[in-house]
Amino acid sequence: MVTVKTMKRWFTSITAVAFILAVIFNWSLLVSSKKPSDVERAFVSDKAQHLADTGDEKLQATTKHAEEKNSVVGVTNLHEALEKIQELEKRLRDIEYRIPKKYPEVEFLTFKDRKRILVTGGAGFVGSHLVDRLMMEGHEMIVVDNFFTGRRRNVEHWVGHENFELIHHDIVNPLYIEVDQIYHLASPASPPHYMYNPVKTIKTNTVGTINVLGLAKRVGARVLIASTSEVYGDPEVHPQTESYWGHVNPIGPRACYDESKRISETLAYSYGKQENVQVRVARIFNTYGPRMHINDGRVVSNFILQALTGQDITIYGSGKQTRSFQYVSDLVDGLIKLQNSNYSQPVNLGNPDEHTIEEFASIIHEMVGGKSMIINKDAIEDDPQRRKPDITRATNILGWQPLVPLQKGIKKTVTFFRRELMRSRHSERNLHNPVDSRNANSIHNAEDYNDL
After folding, report:
1. 183 an active-site residue?
2. How far apart are CA 130 and CA 402, in angstroms?
3. Record's GO cellular component, any one (predicted)?
4. Phi/psi class of residue 134: alpha, beta or left (left: φ > 0; alpha: ψ in -120 to 50)?
5. Which residue out of 232, 257, 271, 288 is catalytically annotated?
6. For 189-199, what is each residue's pLDDT tens digit?
7. Most exposed residue of 38, 200, 233, 239, measured as fewest CB within 10 angstroms of its CB?
8. Are the C-beta atoms of 328 and 133 separated by less than 8 Å?
9. CA 278 to CA 411: how far, in whole Å?
């Protein structure tokens, strides 16, 4: 006997089958309706043949019409074309921004040889060149800078690299990281910069140095203190050896820098004796090269800037006072050799090739050219009269000596300054190739110095 429940089940099954058949039938009609008929095929074929026969004639007519139109509104179209070009340039810049960044090829070091190295003031003039060299050698770099005189663009070519880290930090505040070596370069170094805030300069070279030495003590790192030839003051001994104690005015306008650097050395050796911290001290003499602040007020930058802009080259005093200038790659070479040596006493790093300020002004004037005159103004208070390093200790113990001749180094620096003055927007980069910082020998031996 057929029950109501069975009949409902049969009805549901029949309904489902009918629905499926209806869907299949409608789909077949839809597909068949989209197939072109013979008439449609013939029309398309005739139209294609007609376009092929008349295409050239229409193209010529269209071109002629466009030329006539352009002759009438040529100025407007030129303006539109320039706008299009600018738009395309912007799109290209956007595309370049999205393209994965390419970095200079660095050496590969195994975990046994690779070090984690901290450079305080690593975005500054000397610090950025030191970072370039150590990055190229394959080490992991941590750069700490408060960007008072340092600039991000000095190290921007490394940002994003797996071996590089940039930290915005003022070293007068404690820093807690793990490192193997420390180069303590953080401090304003030119008179206008360190005189701008004398108390902060003193704090950087005292409290900042204490923080660096405390970090070195905690992690067992070796630390190199970047001292200065200013610890000799206005010297009564010439040339200056590391054993000379100096002749410094403790309350003069330069005292905030001179005396705080002397305290920095004292702190270093106190930590060495009391806490067994491995310390190295480099007394750095006048240094120049690419990435110098264009308005830092030092002799090299002042003279080059004045010559390039057609201003009179200003000498403060008689011009008979002497200086010794070393190229930045020579200094970097010396810093690395000192850090990796077993020598813990202070070492002079400078170029003993001595020139009067007057001679130096003439060298730059001849190289740059122009109508600038060399003029003299009143001397600056506490300006050292003679400055020349005795590098016997560096030569005998480190095997170091400067290699870059003054003419070649100045030529490279003038080129950098000239490009800097030509910049009119941020997209026009004036970058110094990190490969140039690999070693001083590459610069000294280069046949074409401009190609570096």
Report:
1. no
2. 16
3. Golgi cisterna membrane
4. alpha
5. 257
6. 888 898 899 99
7. 38
8. no
9. 38
